[in-house]
From TrEMBL:
Residues 319-329 have a biased composition (Basic and acidic residues). It holds the Pfam family DUF87. Keywords: Transferase. InterPro entries: HerA-like, HerA_central, P-loop_NTPase. This is Nucleotidyltransferase. Residues 319-352 are annotated as: Disordered. GO terms for molecular function: 3'-5' DNA helicase activity; 5'-3' DNA helicase activity; transferase activity. Coiled coil: none annotated. Belongs to the HerA family. Residues 29-111 form the Helicase HerA central domain. It catalyses: ATP + H2O = ADP + phosphate + H(+); Couples ATP hydrolysis with the unwinding of duplex DNA by translocating in the 3'-5' direction.
Length: 352
């Protein structure tokens, strides 16, 4: 067995799959290190196996003591985990206002912290614990009427998203050791970003404060939907500084070119599934180290579930076939033929 992501044999690992020979046959098992925190990036075009690979990682994390896995799930692909034989809970995407620091509140509401309304929201976030209290504080402030109104309107917009709740996700819940699935399906871009920013900040702050012994692993599917929003700042902090306090952050995306370069360059483990867009391949090659001589393009796999794994820890490259899931995969695209088999529709026999 080969373990990627570490030099010394110690601690838990996740079974990722097997070496893949040129003829597609299986070689030795390949595991990923779970002993230390890692920044990971999973890329590949649509349907190449990214969400499936995240699911494999989650199954392994669920079986590992001492880690707290959290998955941000914008497509609802991980909801089936709660019905599987693993310790996973699908949670409502509701967070506490205090989880976001004042600077993130301004970014979230598109306010310049130097502006009157921005400064007011900043102070409200620093002084009050809930969105309702923040709004009341703004109303009672001695700022001029126009500034108060602008700040209040922005806070009212945040309230309309219905994701801030004083009973929202706690650090105990997120760092409690079982899998947390943040179901963000159907949640709009800004509130989904608010939720993920709050969760990423909570994981980081909880570890920095030494309030949990568990090492959190935050996995983000469809990460390009977050890196351009306020969550991007919180994720960037995890990618650049999370490993020191022990927080792992893994991003999965079909569009690596849409990620900030730091997301590619900070990943110590890159799992590249099939990728054909020139811009996306270039986003990887521009940020990858020289031991990938000859470029990445020639080495990218063509088959679903196959991945080129680039391991910065050992400066090595591996061709891997990701193993099959033990739990059911919720990322499958719906097929007309399945609807027909399930009796949901009618079709002519010629189209079966
Ligand atoms: N390692 C694997 N072993 C077996 N089947 C796989 C594997 N990886 C992917 N598949 C199959 O390929 C399908 C597509 O995979 P997946 O949903 O992970 O794609 P994706 O890259 O996340 O696509 P999208 O960008 O559309 O979300 C899966 O439903 C599954 O049937």
């Amino acid at each position: 067995m080969v373990v990627i992501g570490r030099e010394r044999e110690q601690g838990p690992t996740a079974r990722l799959g097997h070496y893949r020979a040129r003829d597609g046959s299986h070689g030795a098992p390949v595991d990923v290190d779970l002993d230390r925190p890692h920044a990971g990036l999973i890329v590949g075009k649509r349907g190449s196996g990214k969400t499936y690979t995240l699911g494999v990682l989650l199954e392994e994390l669920a079986d590992t003591d001492g880690v707290s896995p959290v998955v941000a799930d914008p497509m609802g692909a991980f909801a089936p985990l709660s019905a599987a034989d693993i310790d996973a809970t699908v949670v409502d995407p509701r967070v506490r206002a205090t989880a976001l620091d004042p600077s993130l509140w301004c970014a979230l509401l598109g306010l310049d912290p130097e502006s009157g309304a921005g400064a007011l929201v900043w102070q409200a976030a620093a002084r009050r614990d809930t969105l309702t209290e923040m709004s009341a504080w703004v109303e009672d402030s001695d700022a001029d009427g126009a500034t108060r109104r602008a700040a209040s309107n922005h806070l009212a917009l945040a309230a309309s998203w219905d994701v801030f709740d004083s009973a929202g996700l706690s650090s105990e819940r997120l760092c409690g050791g079982s899998v947390t699935v943040l179901d963000l399906s159907g949640v709009d871009h800004a509130p989904a970003n608010a939720v993920l920013a709050a969760v990423a900040s909570t994981l980081y702050d909880t570890r920095v404060a030494g309030e949990t012994r568990h090492l959190p692993w935050l996995l983000v599917d469809e990460a390009h939907a977050f890196t351009d929003g306020v969550a991007g700042r919180a994720l960037e902090r995890l990618l650049t500084r999370g490993r020191h306090p022990g927080v792992s952050c893994w991003l999965a995306t079909q569009r690596p070119s849409a990620l900030p370069p730091v997301a590619v360059s900070q990943a110590d483990l890159l799992l590249a599934h099939r990728l054909t867009s020139e811009a996306d391949v270039a986003a990887l090659t521009d940020a990858r180290p020289t031991y990938l001589d000859g470029g990445i393009e020639r080495r990218l796999p063509a088959e679903t579930g196959a991945a080129l794994v680039v391991d910065d820890v050992t400066e090595s490259v591996h061709h891997v076939q990701v193993r099959e899931r033990r739990t059911s995969h919720g990322g499958e695209s719906p097929r007309v033929s399945e609807r027909v088999r399930a009796g949901h529709g009618t079709t002519s026999p010629h189209h079966n």
